[in-house]
């Protein structure tokens, strides 16, 4: 009885965080039933996750931007433009992919710092500054692609980033062995991380959940990782896109939860004036967050260009709205100071699952946009209501 009482209390206190996991479970279960299991097939799940990659990367960066109470509308066409520059370097200039990728990432940082300059130094509202950037990069993309319309990328190594899979080494019962090994490693790292955090809290006499609740949580999350690994291993295994996204999430999760910089970012988002008075440079944090957003925009552009194996005049269209939606659905607060990188990834998967499921059911694109918009509105309403209750 005590277990259920504690579990109920824990869910009630953390309903904003746990709500998206519950929503994702319901969405997947519903579509799986309505498509006779096709939604949860290895091929569909693999395609769904790969198609989510470039938006998931943007959602990670957008999380930090929203946390510090700003917005960046330029990320979509910045990704499209930088992806087109990568295509030009690869196809027309003959630059090797291992040189092209660092160049594009550095250009992305410069783009992000430019937005940061407008916001931090000149005090221009981020909405206006990034809107200007969106128009600039939209025009720049059209300028780069106006001669051919589409720039074909033939570099197999570069294209593998968006379409390739990690080698299998061998097959075990029809499953990709290397993917199974990576899944097992992820489970071990997750368990180690959870035990480490729990022990650190106990060391300093912080409040922690009971051993029973902790055990259930660890087993449940480990089972989910194992199940997804099994599904993907049954198709072609982990794609390089998934590997890139996992690296980005791991790095930013560590950055935001275990470093001084991460604490400063959330401090600025919670109360910029108090953070400034306590010695934290709000301008510096703004530069870092927008520079990071620019780099992730470049990475998103690389993933998208590699997936299409080309750069097009429409690349980047609505990317920024999908990233913002993923961040809000994933638990980022419109008031700033609240939000997790891992939550935004779940938000991206929720939105992608909705699109994938509705496509499989043959629902028209007009209804899809309305349903996705309703989901976003519900997520923000839920955030506002829960904040008012806590206040």
UniProtKB/TrEMBL annotation:
What's the name of the protein? Xylose transport system permease protein XylH
PANTHER family (UniProt xref): ABC TRANSPORTER PERMEASE PROTEIN YPHD-RELATED-RELATED, XYLOSE TRANSPORT SYSTEM PERMEASE PROTEIN XYLH
Could you name the domain of life of the organism this protein comes from? Answer: Bacteria
Q: What does this protein do?
A: Part of the binding-protein-dependent transport system for D-xylose. Probably responsible for the translocation of the substrate across the membrane.
**Could you confirm whether the keyword DNA damage appears in this record?**
no
* A Pfam cross-reference name: BPD_transp_2
State the taxonomy lineage. Answer: Bacteria, Bacillati, Bacillota, Bacilli, Bacillales
Q: Where in the cell is it found?
A: Cell membrane
């Amino acid at each position: 009885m005590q277990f259920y009482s504690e579990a109920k209390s824990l869910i009630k206190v953390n309903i904003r965080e746990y709500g998206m996991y519950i929503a994702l479970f319901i969405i997947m279960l519903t579509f799986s039933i309505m498509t006779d299991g096709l939604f949860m097939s290895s091929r569909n799940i693999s395609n769904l996750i790969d198609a989510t990659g470039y938006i998931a990367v943007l959602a990670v960066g957008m999380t930090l931007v929203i946390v510090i109470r700003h917005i960046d509308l330029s990320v979509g066409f910045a990704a499209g433009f930088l992806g087109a520059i990568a295509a030009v370097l690869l196809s027309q200039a003959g630059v090797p992919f291992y040189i092209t990728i660092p160049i594009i990432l550095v250009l992305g940082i410069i783009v992000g710092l430019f937005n940061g300059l407008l916001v931090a130094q000149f005090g221009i509202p981020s909405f206006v500054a990034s809107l200007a950037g969106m128009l600039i990069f939209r025009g720049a993309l059209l300028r780069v692609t106006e001669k051919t319309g589409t720039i074909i990328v033939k570099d197999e190594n570069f294209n593998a980033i968006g379409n390739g899979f990690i080698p299998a080494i061998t097959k075990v019962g029809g499953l990709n062995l290397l993917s199974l090994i990576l899944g097992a490693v992820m489970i071990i790292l997750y368990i180690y991380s959870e035990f480490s955090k729990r022990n650190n809290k106990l060391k300093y006499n912080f409040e922690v959940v009971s051993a029973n609740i902790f055990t259930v949580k660890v087993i449940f999350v480990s089972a989910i990782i194992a199940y997804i690994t099994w599904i993907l291993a049954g198709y072609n295994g982990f794609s390089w896109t998934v590997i890139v996204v996992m690296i980005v999430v791991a790095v930013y999760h560590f950055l935001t939860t275990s470093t001084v910089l991460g604490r400063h970012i959330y401090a600025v988002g919670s109360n910029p004036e108090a953070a400034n008075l306590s010695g934290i440079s709000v301008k510096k944090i703004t530069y870092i967050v927008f520079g990071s957003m620019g780099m992730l925009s470049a990475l998103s552009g690389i993933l998208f260009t590699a997936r299409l194996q080309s750069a097009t005049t429409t690349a980047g269209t609505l990317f920024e709205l999908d990233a913002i939606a993923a961040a809000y659905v994933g638990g980022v607060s419109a008031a700033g100071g609240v939000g997790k990188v891992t939550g935004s990834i779940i938000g991206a998967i929720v939105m992608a699952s909705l699109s994938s499921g509705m496509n499989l059911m043959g629902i028209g694109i007009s209804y899809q946009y309305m349903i996705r918009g309703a989901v976003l509105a519900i997520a923000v309403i839920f955030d506002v209501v829960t904040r008012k209750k806590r206040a």
